[in-house]
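Morning. Coffee machine broken again, so started the prediction first thing and wrote up yesterday's gels while waiting. Chain of 804 residues, entered below exactly as on the submission form.
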Amino acid sequence: MPDDLLAELVGLLPVGVFALDDDGRVALWNPAAERLTGWSAGEMVGRSVIPHGPADQTSMMFDVYTAARIVEEIRSGGTVSGKLTAVGGSGARLHFRVAPGPGSTTLGVLHDVGDKEASDEAFALLDALWETAPVGLAYFDTELRYRRMNGVVFETVGGSAEDRVGRTPAEVHGPVGATFSEGLRAVLADGRPRSAVPVEGRLWHGRGPFQEWRVHYYPVRIADGAVCGVGVVMEEVTAAERTRRALEESAAEREHALNRYQSLVEATSAAVWIREADGSARRDAPGLRSITGQTEAEHRGWGFLDAVHRRHRHELEAAWRAAATAEPATVFIRTYRLRTADGGYRWFRTRAVPVHSGGRVVEWVGTETDVDDQMRIRERLYVLAEATHAMNAALDPEGELVALAEATVPQFADVCRVFLVDPDPLPPQGQVADGAPAEGPLSGRRAVTRRAAGVPPIPASAERFTFPPEHPLVRCVRSGSPSLATMPDTSGQWRVPQEQLQWGNDVAINSLLIAPVFSGGAVVAALMFLAGGDRSTYTADDLALVRELASRASAAVENAMAFQQSREVSLALQKAMLTEPPRYPGVEIEARYRPAAAQLQVGGDWYDAFTLPGGDLAVGVGDVEGHDLPAAATMGQLRSMLRGLAHDSHAAPSVVLARLDRVLSGLEVTRFTTLVYGRLGISGGRAVFRWSNAGHPAPILVGPDGEARLLTSRVDLVLGLYPGTRRHDGVAEIPPGSTLLLYTDGLFERRRDHADAAGSALLDLVRRGVPLPLPEFCDHLVRGTIADTGDDIAVLALRVAESG
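Came back before lunch.
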């Protein structure tokens, strides 16, 4: 059930909001939900939206399968969303989102499929109003149990949500809680609010500090008017009561806070008007005309729509005509930009209620509320989130800045330009050695220019630029601080070329914002945003947004440059370590490598194949713990050591691994490495493979008949733990036409494999691919991997030639 202080706001939201009790029955159905679905609150409140079987027709919202998914997600604390059609109602295609609410309730949002952010905005607005209130807020059910509270409660009273939810004040706070509960009972008894009720004492059963509060109790009602809980505003006034002056100041501050939030909830409008049943204006609306600057004659009929922004006018007129003919008529709510008397545009929200007489609508009574500040705040947050996401998706410094420009046009700017700055020959912070202001032009190149649709190209936009010292971009770069300038410039401090001045006049540029981008402590780029046409002039709040955008761009550029450096190192490391397999008579060799960190192109898995002095072919596949550059560096050391030890010895693979284990441990190169190392020798047309396994997946042998099997032998301890461990060898003959496969666990390992089915699935994958030529066979394995861990993959395949 929604909190009492937000109940009126819920009624004003432009999206459908509903609440379900713990039985899945509708406990709240706001006017927007009625408008979107065509189902009235009278039809929905008390109705179960979750059918109890395919034949259950009591629900008009969810089919049995969607309902089952909702129940499963909500019980696990998750959020579920999807689409539904209001069958039997408006017939509209709607998007729904359902999430756990306070206590045992569930909150849901409905909105047009085309309005993608509506449900997120509704949830965010409710939570923001609740959590940012400067006073303690709490909600209690009819059993006097805590159901929800905001952070101010914990800051002033102590404890946590776990201490309270589901318990009564008396259970939590002892005697003081019992006193507090008297106000709850009184409101539940007669449904009347209580204001400024004094409560004092020691909480937590007398163990806390002595405190004083002023408590305001408000009834929370469902659609039929019944009281279903109590909302509480708590003000801790202990310190304020100590002196008379402190008391007066605290009372004034609290009154201001309460009035501010009361205004948010009640959404008091700036203008009230009355319109005819068809939505047209036949009566004068002085309050609205004072906003738009229209005359009475201009306002009448459908003339009031002339003040609506061209992007919103058609939609608003269509919505009005649809609302006028809808049966039954519902509350009409729309948000749009309105031309004001000074010629600019601001966001307004209209809310109209139908007036009935004789069973039909005879007129509409509505309000027009200026919501420009809220809408622009929301737009700034949206731009910040979109730009941050776009920059994070790019991998190079210029790509980061291009992504930022594309994310801010046209949502925030009509034009965004990115200037890459040459290293400034002048000292930083705009000062030369003797302390005089820095002088001299600034040069560089433009990385990108993004324009909104309909904005013509900027003239004289060459690849290189040079700006004079009085140019605002130069001042921004030299000072290291963002700046805001209005257009056209009347200060005479900087001159615009005539063709660009004409372009600015044609586009009606009214202001610009510039912000520096840093890397390594120096300015490497400057961002310029231009506003024109009917876009509102940039303000100090927009400057704050650009400052944050530039800060995030600086961090993104730093990260991208660090990534590029890591990538260059990783590519060089990969090229040095993962060499092409050698040519070996009578054996075809292929290898594949796919790192988990695909962008760096390195990881801890590796393969190797080289010819030994005696003529045998040495092969190995290993897995060093980790998926980054340190793991790759360790892998390089291990690979080099293995090559050296194997090349300098005719010993069996088990002896070579034992020596490698001692070296690794003695030099503290690694503490956890798995490895299969072996030797393939061919004599008299007979190929024999001898290997030793240090905790690694077993090799696979596919015979000439295409049947795949694991080469089982003793699997010894991994390298790097106990260097004195005895190691063993396995021996297998490799018939002509056979394929020997060595690999790492990234090829088949699964997070959940309770039935131990991954091994069988891997053998099946090998069988299906082995008829392919060896290169395509290796591609088939890597592309068709059955693993789901995202681990590194290394594959080394050897195919012995057919006899004859």
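The two ends are 83 Å apart (CA to CA). Going to sketch it on the whiteboard this afternoon.
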